[in-house]
Amino acid sequence: MALLSTKLLAETLDQCLVQRDRALRDVGVVPTLAAVLVKGDEASEVYFRSKRRLAKKLGIAFRGITLPADATTSELLRALRRSAEDPSVHGVFLEMPLPSTVDAERIRNAVPLEKDVDCVSDAAIGRVLTASSTVFDNGHSSVLPATPLAVMELLRRSGIPIAGKHAVVVGRSFTVGRPLALLLLAADATVTVCHSRTPDLSDHTRRADILCVAAGRPHLIGKDHVRKGAVLIDIGIHSSSAGLVGDIDTQAVVDHAAWVTPVPGGVGALTTRMIFANMLSAAESSADPRFANSDSRPQKEPPSS
Question: pTM here?
Answer without folding.
Answer: 0.85
